[in-house]
């Protein structure tokens, strides 16, 4: 089943059940406390926290998400993209646990001919929070899940809150068993890598008012919320990879074409001899390229441009990592002009604006690759000198200073320096680098403060003037008198 078809079925399923279909918000988070939209619930935060009345009791969406936290997982696990799409259904004081369980189960196990996703009910597992008997009971009664496939986990895994006083509550996650060839029996509880039991959907039950929130696991429950909410998130790419019979989310229809094109450009075969170490590493690189190119496309599509701070820096890192990975795969020519249009074509069924806006998007991406190529060309000489000096000195470690000047003068992001150093068997004094970065930031802040203080001082002078009247300036007279 194509990804666009799964998306369509999801929205239709919930629309038929009284949910208002809400278009995806931008990847630039509508909530000012977040750089990027990291989950389907982000655009609904004002309704979920009760800050604003919800304009509808039920909503559904397919939300574009970026999670930079997952960047190191990309290509290594089967299930983490820096960009992904979260399908969600939301209830604002309307249905609660039973409704959430019923709606999810009907979609997952509904027959394909009837608009469902057709998962085998016998391969589904769920987790609930330790004392959440209501949820466990709903899974047992409504979905008919045997108690062995309803596992109870603690706050670390099955509790949600914002990290601040406000709504919170237990959650319940749905897993698919990919089979014994991917790991031992025992359900998600024993499968800490998540390779065999794949988490596809998280149902959050916003049930309590919390206070005194000290950490993920330490808080005080004040009592039940007057209006309980449902917030769910299903990973579209994860469902697609299962339904398309491929091994991971980078091999689905919306991502694989880039992966294949990258392999072609590098003259290698993806997945060739999976047990050999070399190709393993190569395959990870190809998956990183496919993931990062897509994330770059989507971020620029939403108006982010490469830069040295905040969102722009994340975008820069993603694009540069993709370009460098291609270089490591042996491709010296510019690669984004080859890869970006492939990603656009794979994504534009769901996001037609990528095609209409492609002239702008591609200009931004290609300019960044050019800038990076110049950076690499000029900085690599300094890098090589630093490495050979370090090796000669018998201390195979680049100093914080060297890493800092690569960053400051040549625009080498620290992860590029780290990666290049690791390839040469050299470590980097990252702590020293961070200390220098902090110094630079503090200096910049102090400068900014000095500027601000300047204007404050003028105000202070005005106030003095208002309070005390103009100072009698007698110097000229005095001087005059003295010289007389
Ligand atoms: P995991 O434990 O696998 O990292 P998660 O528990 O962090 O996932 P949630 O925060 O519960 O994920 O998000 C809801 C759903 O969104 C997940 O069940 C999953 O299907 C999907 N999802 C989360 N992170 C990613 C990602 N980086 N790439 C693709 N899908 C994701
Ligand atoms: Mg995660
Ligand atoms: Mg999880
Ligand atoms: Mg989860």
Structural features, described:
It is a single chain. The chain has helices at 3-16, 45-48, 97-109, 133-141, 155-158, 236-243, 256-266, 277-301, 310-328, 336-347, 353-356, 358-392, 400-410, 414-423, 430-468, 475-483; strands at 20-21, 58-66, 83-92, 124-129, 150-153, 159-161, 166-177, 197-211, 220-235, 397-398, 427-428. Helices cover 47% and strands 17% of the residues. The chain is of the alpha/beta class and 484 residues long. The protein contains 16 helices and eleven strands. Strands 1, 2, 3, 4, 5, 6, 7, 8 and 9 form a nine-stranded mixed beta sheet that branches. A two-stranded parallel ribbon has the order 10-11. Residues 455-462 and 469-484 have low confidence and may be disordered. The chain folds into two domains: 3-243, Bira Bifunctional Protein, Domain 2 (BirA Bifunctional Protein, domain 2); 255-428. Bound molecules: adenosine-5'-triphosphate and magnesium ion (3 copies). Adenosine-5'-triphosphate binds at residues 67, 70, 79-81, 84, 86, 194, 199-202, 233-235, 237-238.
